[in-house]
From TrEMBL:
Residues 454-531 form the AMP-binding enzyme C-terminal domain. Residues 34-403 form the AMP-dependent synthetase/ligase domain. InterPro entries: AMP-bd_C, AMP-bd_C_sf, AMP-dep_synth/lig_dom, ANL_N_sf, ATP-dep_AMP-bd_enzyme. Coiled coil: none annotated. One of its GO terms (molecular function) is ATP binding. The keyword Cell division does not apply. Keywords: ATP-binding, Ligase, Nucleotide-binding. Pfam families: AMP-binding, AMP-binding_C. It comes from Streptomyces coelicoflavus. Residues 531-550 are annotated as: Disordered. This is AMP-binding protein.
Length: 550
């Protein structure tokens, strides 16, 4: 079998150790579905607003689509950009890809032209699977598909879940596969090859792609499901996008399916949508970002829905303040778990049985006994125990290199393979992580990551803008929001700030990446080494209110 040249693997000695310890089981990630279809056939796997699928139905549909994709000429190793909301189609497509060894590149529904073109181009995708429209906003993804197709001519297929317009209907491909019957294409898969490509939230420039192999992702899912006590009675609510690692695999929807539980897919995380679902389906566990946790616990005070089935609420993706943690536990009356995770791999979780104070004040301990953690200073020297520094990590499910990013990898990893997380943390005497801040240049907008570099690039492309710097500013609800400092060109005064939104729209930037506040300035402050002084900009922004975008 040809090696997967675009992704960096683990050195042999590590691979051997991870196998001997049982972390890596050398099985294709999606195989458990076929087994469940035999043993748990009639049990409900997925529930949406429109209906439900049993394990055997999910298996049958995934197998049919796998054959359909094979008929289109898609083969093992082909990349397929999958940008679907929380629907049955997302899971049918995911399992179909896994079955034939095509590698889904998981894009968020919020992505627009800029992001989608980048994913398709960077991965040299052969196909793009997306919905017809967004039912809430009316946004037409088929127009997006046209734009991506024009920009990336190598893209051979656009498959639309729903009304296809001028593209191909995903359902037609599935039906053709159903009729063809027989074996769904090649199944000889290399478990050390990437099973999925996830999008990084935290790197410079355009988003990097993270290869998660069958072996490492299966471990991530299995071990986190075990830590969280998932079992056949688990009813997991996917309120966050299923395309995000947290809701997909930590343990998320895949962790639930792995143990034979039931996944409920919500089209939105709003309490108005989610609370009736929790009551109706007796949801036992879900995962949210901190602003949602706060919102839900407030809404719970007024709601008439019965939320008592909820036994565990996972909160992660951004800093959860201890006060908020206490309020959430009281408001929702269930166990709280803090999760510090990253698409790159490492997952830390507070454990069932931790005292509430420990849950409120820490982000828990690493998933795997063989996760190696270092906390280092600017010169990569370990800081004394308990002090704050950058977290470096290496382990059986943490990447050894971004996909097709040879140059970037040189600085993103140490020579001995530790991933530089860019997070500033300290370790408690009990071995829990406490996130204290961040070194990387991004805004964590309540879990949504906005790369400063990427947004600055878009702003600098404006004809009236000479320079721009993006910094986080504190926000009561989101934790942080995005502030852009802008230096207009001298020869083109009178920058139209409200018009910036429309400009970013023409650049095809996802809505959540648009700045929340804009400051106009004559020049950007610089540090002694001549870099833009973002610390100063951050505190200045906190003092001035700037011009809100809305
Ligand atoms: C999760 O994954 P990503 O890839 O969107 O973002 C990772 C980054 C981390 O490096 C850190 O900067 C931040 O998000 N983060 C947290 C955090 N959890 C993530 N910062 C403070 N406190 C936390 N609890 O965000 C993600 C992936 C899997 C599970 C949970 C979250």
């Amino acid at each position: 079998m040809e090696p997967f040249v675009d992704a960096v693997g683990w050195p042999d000695a590590y691979a051997r150790r991870y196998r001997e310890s049982g972390y890596w089981q050398d099985r294709p990630l999606g195989d458990f579905l076929t087994e469940h279809a035999h043993t748990l056939g009639d049990r409900t796997a997925l529930v949406t607003e429109h209906g439900s699928l049993t394990y055997s139905e999910l298996e049958r549909r995934a197998a049919a689509l796998a054959r359909g994709l094979t008929n289109l000429g898609l083969v093992r190793g082909d990349r397929i950009v999958v940008q679907l909301p929380n629907t049955e189609d997302f899971f049918v497509t995911l399992f179909a890809c896994l079955r034939i060894g095509a590698v889904p590149v998981l894009g968020l529904p919020a992505y627009r032209r800029s992001e989608a073109v980048h994913l398709a181009r960077h991965s040299s995708a052969a196909a793009y699977v997306l919905p017809d429209t967004d039912s809430a906003s009316g946004y037409d993804y088929r127009v997006l598909a046209d734009e991506v197709r024009n920009a990336v001519p190598e893209l051979r297929h656009v498959l639309v879940a729903g009304a296809p317009g001028r593209h191909t209907a995903l359902a037609t491909v599935e039906e053709a596969g159903e009729q063809a019957g027989g074996h769904p294409g090649s199944t000889e898969l290399d478990p050390t090859a990437p099973a999925v490509l996830l999008v990084s939230g935290g790197t410079t420039g355009l988003p990097k792609l993270i290869p998660r192999t069958h072996n490492d992702y299966a471990y991530n899912i299995r071990a986190s499901a075990q830590v969280c006590g998932f079992g056949p009675d688990t009813v997991y609510l996917a309120a966050l996008p299923a395309a995000h690692n947290f809701a997909l695999a930590c343990p998320g929807a895949l962790g639930t399916l792995l143990v034979g539980g039931t996944v409920i897919l919500s089209p939105s995380p709003d309490p108005d949508t989610v609370f009736p679902i929790i009551e109706r389906h007796k949801v036992t566990v879900t995962a949210v970002v901190p602003p949602l946790a706060a919102l839900w616990s407030q809404a719970a005070e007024w709601s008439t829905e019965d939320l008592s089935s909820l036994t565990l609420l996972q909160v992660g993706g951004a800093r959860l303040a201890p006060d908020t943690a206490r309020r959430v536990r009281a408001g929702l009356g269930c166990e709280l778990q803090q999760v510090f995770g990253m698409a790159e791999g490492l997952l830390c979780l507070t454990r069932p049985g931790y005292a509430p104070e420990r849950v409120d004040a820490t982000q828990g301990r690493p998933l795997c006994p063989d996760d190696e953690l270092r906390v280092v200073d600017e010169d990569d020297r370990d800081v004394p125990p308990g002090e704050t520094g950058e977290l470096l990590t290496r382990g059986p499910y943490t990447l050894r290199g971004y996909y097709r990013a040879e140059d970037h990898n040189k600085s993103a990893f140490t020579v001995d393979g530790f991933y530089r997380t860019g997070d500033l943390v300290r370790l408690t005497v009990d071995g829990d992580i406490v996130v204290e801040g961040r070194k990387k240049d991004l805004v964590n907008r309540g879990g949504d990551k906005v790369s400063a570099d990427e947004l600055e690039g878009h702003l600098r492309a404006h004809p009236d803008i000479l320079d721009a710097a993006v910094v986080p500013v504190p926000d009561e609800y989101l934790g942080e929001r995005t502030c852009a400092w802008i230096v207009p060109r001298k020869d083109r005064p009178g920058l139209d700030v409200p018009g910036l939104d429309a400009f970013l729209e023409t650049r095809g930037v996802a809505q959540y990446k648009k700045p929340d506040v804009v400051h106009i300035t004559d020049s950007l402050p610089v540090t002694s080494v001549g870099k833009v002084d973002k610390r100063t900009l951050g505190s200045r922004a906190a003092e001035h209110s700037g011009q809100p975008r809305h």
